[in-house]
Structure formats: C-alpha cells, structure tokens
User: Fold this.
Amino acid sequence: MRKLQANYLFNGISAPIPRAIVVVDEEGFIAEIAQDGDYQDVEYFEGVLCPGFINTHCHLELSMLHQQIPQHTGLPQFVQKIAPLRNKFSEQQTQQAIAAAEQQMIQNGIVAVGDIANNTASFAQKKQGNLYYHTFIECFALDPKRARTVVQQAIATYHQLPKHARSKGSLAPHAPYTASLELFLLIKWFNTQYNLVPSTIHHQECYPENDMFRNGTGEMVDLYRSFGTDISTFFEPIHDTSLTFVWAYFAREGKNLLVHNTVCGADDIDYMMENNPDTYWCFCPNANLYIENKLPNFSYFLPYTNRLTLGTDSLASNTELSILAEMKTIAQHAPYVSLEQLMQWATINGARLLNLDYKLGSIEVDKQPGINLITHLDANLQLTQQSTVKVLE
Ligand SMILES: [Zn+2]
Assistant:
C-alpha cells in the first residue's frame, strides 16, 4: 500500500480537502481516504493530488500532422489544408506518431480518451489497452444522397474496433456543416439499435459555420465551392445558428458531446440545456487558439458546470496532448473559473460522459482512477504557467 499526501486533495467530486491521505493498493485501487495524522509512513508532495484526466476530444489518427499546418488560418482554411496532408505519410510514420501521441497522453496523466476516427489507423494502438478509449467513428456527408453510403462505411469501420473492456465506440457526425438530416437519422438509428452512448459532434467552431446556417453564404460555403460543390442544390439555410439543426434532428435526447462551441451564445446553451439536460460540452481552448485565435465565452457555460469537459483535439491543431495545458489556458484567460471547477471538467464529468465513472474520474474507495500530482500553484490555489503534472499512480 502507498500512502500519498499533498497540500490538498481534489477528489473530482467535492471541495479540495487539505492534506488528505490517499491509500492506494498495489493495483492502483483506492483503499482508503484518511485524514492528516492517521498515518506516519506517508509520501508527502508539494502541490495537489487529483484523479487521472479524461480527454474527451482527440483525433489520434492525425498525430503525424504535428506542426504541418500554420496557426491562425481560421477553420475553413484549416480544413482545406488538412485534406491533402492525410495521405502524405507512410503507414509506419502514422503508426509511430500515434504511439508517441498516446505515450505523451499517459505521461501527462490522461487515463481515458474520447477519440475521433475516420479510418482504422488508431485501432492497432488501441488494441494494446494502455488507455481507455471511446472511439467516435466520424461520418461526413452534407449531400443527403451520400448519407447511406457514408454510414455503411462507418458501420464497417465500427466493426473493426478492438474488442476489449477498454475499447468502446459509436458513430458520430463530424459537424453541422458536413451533415444532413438523413445522415443524423441514420447515425442515430445505428447507435440506438446497438445502445451505443454517447455520440459527439464538432459544434459552432467558427462564425462561417453560423453564416452558412443563417444565410447560406460565407467562407464555409466558399470552401465547398473550392472543392467543386455548389451546396445550394441540396442545402437550405435555417435562418438560425447551427445549434437549432443539431438539436432538432440529432441531440434532442440522450448523452451527446458538443465540441469547441467557440462562437456559441448564451441563449443557444440555455436552450440546449433546458431541452436536453444530458448534453455535455467540450472545450479545446489550445486548439481554438491555434486555429481561430479565439476562445469560447466560458462564463456562459458556468451554470452547467457538471456538464463541461476538456479535450486536446489533435496534434494537427495543438502543440501537445495535455489536459493540464488546456486547464492552464482557461485559468489564464478566464480567471473566474476556479481550480475546483477545472478539476471537475478534467476528471469526473468526462468519466460520466464516457460511462467510465464506475472506475475513473474521482478518488473514491474501490475506484482505480490514476493519481496525478499538480505542482506550482499560486497562493490562491490557482494554476500558474509553471504548473506541471506528474503521474504518481
Ligand atoms: Zn476535433
């Protein structure tokens, strides 16, 4: 048994507890939470203890695109640049980059990942079971005539997922601007038939997405034109933000994760939570800064703090895969968010989203959550730019 103690314990589910002692058995299961003074043979650390982190949004299969796309291009340009790069790398380069990216997540205290897949490139790594993965098989098809074919291909990919306790999956639409009503309904049909929960979608990542839904104009529509597609033959603007489309046809019930939400307004968030309180939200602030150089207004989301999660996005749009780095960015740009809230977003909320809270996400007796040590906090118990994470268990 190890007995771990630091200045504070953030257990993921309650206010920080000063100098609590976490007793951990040989397999990493929590045996007891003891009080300061209960044991003499403790390992004491400067900093705070917290559960292993849950990364709810990653694209492991894009790991080889690290530093391939310049920063601040905006999303439409980013999407345009990523398409030809996907085939530039050999299978060996891709597999090496995926293995290194997973190793980086492990070193950064991440224990479970909600990971997007368009193909089977990440499956060999996932088969090893080093981390828990929920793989979202992604479907792209704005043209309703392509919906059936695209979903059939995604189902074939889904059936190739590694089959073990640390690998689950479901189908997911990529984004509102690459989905049709038909695509949404087919994805929901498959997920419902096999009881695959949750699903996810990139959401309100940039203003051009909303321009397309409001008016059928703007940079996103121009992007389609640059690929030779005139979307007006099958796409009708709805004179509202993309959330209305997502809510009406995809996310009216059940657990779904909306990712990015960079330009999402308070009225949209409130509407969604009133109508489907099971909805979860993911922030990827470092990717938002990388691509759009813009962050969501975090204050709009604070009434729903138990539905907020954090993601790293991929190495194509981030310098590292670290949930602590995402927390530091929020702490820097939105100091009104407390460390207790950030810890909740980084741990238990993601575990609940991914149905892993029976084991992960909080430091409670009989769970096996992983234990991280976070150092270099300031006197007000806030993260600083010097804060680091070390995996203790
Ligand atoms: Zn993404």
The radius of gyration is 21 Å. The longest strand covers residues 43-51. Residues 57, 59, 116, 202, 313 surround zinc ion (CB under 6 Å).
